[in-house]
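Worked Example 4.2. Consider the chain below.
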Amino acid sequence: MSSVIHPDRDARIQASIGTIQNGCEDGRFEYPQGMAFDHHRGLLFVVDCGNHRVQVFCSDDGSFVSKFGEYGIQPGQFQNPWGLAIDHDNDRIFVTDNGNNRVQVWSLSEQSFLSCVGQYGSGDLEFFYPEGIAIDKHHHRLIIADSFNHRLVLLSLIDLSFLFSMGHGQAIPAMLNSPSSIAVDHDRNRIIVSDTDNNRVQVLSLIDGSSVFEFAYHHGGHLEEVCGVCVANQGQIIVAEYGNRRLHVLAPEGRHVRQLECDSYYGPLTVAFDEHRGLIAFSVENRVHVIGANQWLADTFTWRPDRHRYAPSWMKQAVSTMTMIRSLVDESAMSMIPNELLFEIFSFL
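Applying the procedure from the previous section yields the following structure tokens:
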């Protein structure tokens, strides 16, 4: 199934950040790259590559919150930062500092610099233009797309020591060519990689790096310049295809489910999913757009009681009020409505 989205005038988009023209003012971008949702705080972190910084926004309405970083080569300074991953368990943000060939670590709560690791090269703890980054929570590992070394590098999440690498020198189809974005499917022990210069998405085993499947072609033709990937709640893979200006959705087994054509001069560069609030963010032409997942992919997101605390404040208040009324009127029809259905009802209001 295919549909078209008009980023400048589509009613499905609940927030748009930035302008088509680049800029260095707060809330404007030059080449926005990696993104990640902080669902605990209702925030969206965006790597503003050309302005050598990270900007932070409210995920509900796109309002500017804060920023950190500046141009330079010293610790705490960036040179074309690229990817970003949030480690909630340890209150950290990891940023790939592309031009400085390293990974920087920042405090999530304070947004202050903590440490960095890496230098130019192809050995252990060396990088050549690192781009995407993701966290493997089950195995306590940090995974970096070491783009120009054509590999994935895995570090210990505990002390950032080198563990091993995969992709470079492996047999086809697991061999990578300028990987740019990665995501982790924890339920299935998989790494999803945008294998950019091979014009495909690769899904690899988290255990040994072997190929599970690849996606390079569907009924609409070959992929061209795959730049961003993320994983939605039910294991669906969302792909940002820059060259053909499309977003794709794949089922966990690799079947093509849906695509969204972007009515714009340039295609989407990156995409992120908020598993606790049901939001999809994607960047097009120096702008970042936020859309409710169910506005594009029906039944992708369902409110559950364990997600209630991450809901927007207006929804939490509405559900709390309805729940209170229901508890006071035991014999009413409302008393028969489960919380899950209430969450779903209010998500469409």
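Residues 305-347 form one domain. The two ends are 26 Å apart (CA to CA). Compare this with Example 4.1 before moving on.
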